[in-house]
Request: fold
Amino acid sequence: MEKETKEAVLEDYEFDEQVSDEENPFTDAELLTEKETFELPEGIRLDIGLTDSLGKSRSFVQGLIAQECVIVNGSAKKANYRVRRGDLIEVVFPTPRESTAEPENIPIEVLYEDEDVLVVNKPQGMVVHPAPGAWTGTLVNALLYHCRNLSGINGVLRPGIVHRIDKDTSGILVVAKNDIAHQGLAAQLKAHTMDRKYLALVHGVVLEPSGTVDAPIGRDPTDRKRMAVVMQHSKLAVSHYTVLERFRESTYVEVQLETGRTHQIRVHMRYIKHPVLGDQVYGPKKNQFGLQGQMLHATYLGFEHPRSGKWMKFDAPLPRKFAVLLVKLREEV
Reply:
């Protein structure tokens, strides 16, 4: 197995807001014959040492150990095992036994559709594709009922999915209905030519009229279930923001993505000390408006049609909950 393929398998089972932290990602796993060998510092706990070496979450590593995918000197050990000098540690990486996602009669808002692409406005609270903790009720389940023919490039659990937005983020997604369309859209994402704009309400008053956050994003070294601005084991991430309105203790901004990293806007806004309102992962624990999910909406998407080459652009209005909060903030000024 190539290293990048192995990383993709592991990344599929990292915990994020789409799945419950209590889920075990290896319930239906079958083992690969590929192994990787490690030497860890003497005295370190097995789970902590492997977490650092793999660059994955501790819960992921503990799942590996619980399923006896980690072998020390020929036998399985517990997570709290203290590594001894000369220990030979082997890790067998599991791969998911995928099952086909089932069509479900779930209403979806279709903004555009032709033989190649489908553009939808995803509601807040809907997971994009099936994953541990959310096998049903996803956008994929709804899409399969709606059109039944989607690109197979991303596998049976992610048919047609070219990019995704977080469960508690609303807004526009483009879906590929065939592999040629998928390849064309994916190439635009990779080249950063797809135009994506978001609207967000953030904590605090942003003083500058506009700005750019150019800060690499990777796994948070202190909490592997979150992302953070880090210098090592990270990827280039660039976000451009413009202030639309300022309120007493918050700001309404538009954010344009130059790159598309996991949780990019949420991480970048936290980094400049203006986390998104309602963000239970990256924002303050106090939720003054009782929000269920972050005030972040994918409002605009522009891309070149993969068949015709025509530039397509779409807008999605703010969801009602977001719009109502804006009215309330304006009344308080």
Summary: The longest strand covers residues 29-38. The CA atoms of residues 151 and 160 lie 4 Å apart.
